[in-house]
Amino acid sequence: MQKVGFGGGCHWCTEAVFASLRGVSLVEQGWIASRLYEAQTPSEAVIVTFDPKVISLDTLIEIHLYTHNATSSHVFRDKYRSAVYVFDEHQQKEAEEILQKKQKLFKKPLVTRVYPFGSFTKNKEKYLNYYHKDPCKPFCQVHIAPKLKVLFERYKDYARVR
Questions:
Q1: Domain span including residue 121
Q2: What pLDDT was estimated at residue 38?
Q3: Which end of the chain has the smaller Cβ count within 10 Å, N or C?
Q4: Distance CA 157, CA 144 (A)
């Protein structure tokens, strides 16, 4: 099993996407900060524990890029930064190469950056599994459901049965 972190806007949305994938055994939702100065402010993010024999880092990054706005700066970019948080130098090199390769899939430049993991603060229990606890909430229908629709249409081979 391997771990990687993802920041891509709201952590409730990101959690719902990655929790819906085969090969993902755990999604921890909260705030991640990097060891690098420009990303030391924690951002809403998730840590994904996955089996690379079932789903690759390449596929996880691609899914991440297509299920949030990876080409647009956000007015609250520190809190909602588009990021891949890596746990070692090998993973950093691999993630950077994947992002470079995936850039050609997008018309605009990716704003997603690779950062070395620094620290993690888990969210309060009442906010964990936010979508799966009540998918009918307006926030879930407006913000999370469209991301899951992309996941289930575009990556159905990797999606868990609904």
A1: 2-154
A2: 80
A3: C
A4: 20
Q: Which residues of the chain have pLDDT under 70?
A: 74-76, 161-162
Scanning the chain, the segments in alpha helix (DSSP H) are 11-19, 57-66, 89-102, 130-133, 138-139, 145-154
DSSP 159: B
CATH number of the domain bearing residue 23: 3.30.1060.10
> b/e for 119-153, b at 16 or more Cβ within 10 A?
ebeebeeeebebbeeeeeeeebeebbeebbeebee
Q: What is the pTM of this model?
A: 0.94
pLDDT for the residue 148: 94
Q: Tell me if 79 is assigned to some domain.
A: yes
